[in-house]
Amino acid sequence: MDEANRTAATQKAFNAWQQPGQAAYDFRSDTMTSPTASMLEAISNTTLLDDVFQEDPTTNDLERYVAELSGHEAAVLVMSGTMGNQVALRTHLKGPPHSVLCDIRGHIYNWEAGGVSTLSGAMLVAVQPANGHHLTLEDVQKHAVVSDDVHACPTRVISLENTLDGTIMPLDEVRKISQFARQHGIKMHLDGARIWDAVAADAGSLPEFTTCFDSVSMCFSKGLAAPIGSIIVGSKPFIAHARWIRKMIGGGTRQAGVISAAARVAVDEGFGKGPRGEGGKLRDSHARARKVAEMWESRGGELAKPVETNMVWLDIARAGIPAAEFARLAADEGLKASGGRLVVHYQISDDAIERLGRVMDKILQNSSKKRKVNGH
Ligand SMILES: Cc1ncc(COP(=O)(O)O)c(C=O)c1O
To answer: What residues make up the domain containing 330?
Structure first.
């Protein structure tokens, strides 16, 4: 039995809420974080009233709290990051012809089952950032369709993502794009699944980022470790309409206190108790991500992207290792990894990082042997 399976079995034998278990060895994503004992305690003390009728105090409090924290009027709980993006975009997009401009690497373009075209009937204009890092105002101006021409499909929403692949879109660029959008009557949406991480990296406070947007979707179930849930913030009329769309797609839940109690603990303990993530756990994840990157570089490896938050992109292609082989070598050490992207979350153990060092040794020793054989 490998380490990951052994810890999974241990989870069954003891109380799974008391320890991260398998999550401590899982670098595939921060979605693998395990809900904590304090979340279980909050769930057992939660209120159990109906959220479709907006009667549940714990859910109402969470919505009020996150709206205030992010400088918006209102908020609505949703089940997932995908639901957050799709409900927000459907709420903005009133009628065709309409298009949404986003980064070509964005989640809404690549990983939401084509939902924007199915649910909103909108065209997605996916833009390659010219600087290879983040979209700029120049990229947006070049690709936004601001036109009454009947042949055109006007841009109605600019949908940004922050962090994207763990990298940060700087606040001054977000502000410039937001100003451009407002000048042209274009709505701004943020896929802020990991905006918490941009804030914890001191790129700006939560409201500095979130008030640049008409809607923001933020996840509780990634690095913050809640079992379920995301939230959309926006104006009161926007959120009232979003609640309607959420109902339409089956996202209205009844005793939602079991979700929102854990989500509130995730925000307070994971992100922290203030607009700059004061006292949260993400800064430590970022420091550990930098440590993982240093371990790789000190052994002669190269990075495919800079480490700005909790993701480390090892350039395994340059090291001559296919993703499947990397995953296999990691599995031999009891680790879960899907390829060169390593996502570091606060539940990753010191032991897992040590084991990762041994995986790196194997890969980089092999690749330096290959280089010697090839004469460079
Ligand atoms: C940037 C981003 N947005 C949205 C989502 C979707 O979240 P969910 O898996 O909760 O639907 C993810 C998922 O990993 C994500 O990385």
So the answer is: 280-371
Residue 32 lies in a domain: no
- Pocket test of ligand 1: the residue of 30, 32, 82, 311 to mutate, having most ligand atoms within 8 Å of its CB, is 82
* Residues in a beta bridge with 192: 218
Final residue of a domain: which of 230, 253, 271?
271
pLDDT digits (tens, 9 = 90+) for 207-233: 999 999 999 999 999 999 999 999 999
Does 216 lie in the same domain as 350? no
**Which of 29, 102, 104, 111, when mutated, tests ligand 1's pocket best, judged by the most ligand atoms within 8 Å of its CB?**
111
In tens, the pLDDT along 163-175 reads 999 999 999 999 9
CA distance 336 to 84: 28
Residues 197, 330 within the same domain: no
**Ligand 1 lined by 193 (C-beta under 6 Å):** yes
Element spanning 328, H or E = helix 323-332
Quote the ligand 1 centre to 375 CA distance (angstroms): 44
The atom number, within ligand 1, closest to the CA of 31 reads 14
Distance, in Å, from the CA atom of 301 to the CA atom of 367, rounded to the nearest integer, reads 9
How many domains, in total, are found in the chain? 2
CA distance 203 to 61: 27
CATH number of the CATH domain containing 352? 3.90.1150.10
**342/295 Cα distance (integer angstroms):** 13
Confidence label for 16 from pLDDT (cuts 50, 70 and 90): confident
Burial code (b: 16+ CB inside 10 Å, e: under 16) for 213-233 equals bbbbbbbbbbbbbbbbbbbbb
Residue 219 Cβ inside 6 Å of ligand 1? The answer reads: yes
Residues 223 and 306 in one domain: no
CA distance 33 to 30: 6
Q: Are residues 240 and 290 in the same domain?
A: no
81 and 120: one domain?
A: yes
Q: At what angle do helices 257-265 and 57-69 cross, to 10 degrees?
A: 40
Among 246, 271, 296, residue at a domain's last position: 271
Looking at the domain assignment, is residue 148 inside a domain?
yes
CA–CA separation, 14 vs 8, rounded Å?
10
Which residue's CA is the nearest one to ligand 1's atom 5? 81
